[in-house]
């Protein structure tokens, strides 16, 4: 045993690499977005909905890239303002929000957690819209799904009452088993 070893100064603690700090800060920004609700379906966060495409942290602040659910979505400005406010309140400033409209948003981007939250909220979640075959060919929008299960009792014995619900992205249905009306988030 070396008695001088106890007298030697300890090595300074290792500093995290810049890449690790950036990754931690980026993960924290994404986490903040988990708590930003969608104004039309407040049971979902903007992350659950799948409209947050990217978070880029740079020397000039934070850029959040959003893809609106459709190009004329009236909630886009409210969502942009909510994202900016939440990140600035969490110390991520300045924040710039940009819109990326291509590729177009699809209900396939709603997270599994988001689909679970829709169901718990009483809205039938959309089914997946899958491309035909192995090609990446354009898929036509399916406005009328093949089967919609009741979010309350789970019955598949339902009927569409109206092509539009409280927002253009939802349709009104009624369960013929439990007789309860419900909305269905249309798959696109």
Task: Give the SSE layout.
Layout: H1 18-33, H2 46-49, E1 52-58, E2 61-66, H3 76-89, E3 95-99, H4 112-121, E4 123-124, E5 158-162, E6 170-175, E7 181-185
Parallel strand pairs: 2-3, 4-7
Antiparallel strand pairs: 1-2, 5-6, 6-7
Shape: elongated
CATH superfamily of the largest domain: Fe-S cluster assembly (FSCA)
Helical coverage, percent range: 10-25%
**What is the alpha-carbon Rg in Å?**
23 Å
Helix tally?
A: 4
Largest sheet report: 4 strands, mixed
Major β-sheet strand ordering? 4-7-6-5
Intertermini distance: 71 Å
H and E order? HHEEHEHEEEE
Features:
4 helices; 7 strands; single chain; GMP Synthetase, Chain A, domain 3; 23% helix; 188 residues; 4-stranded mixed sheet; alpha/beta; 2 domains; disordered N terminus; 3-stranded mixed sheet
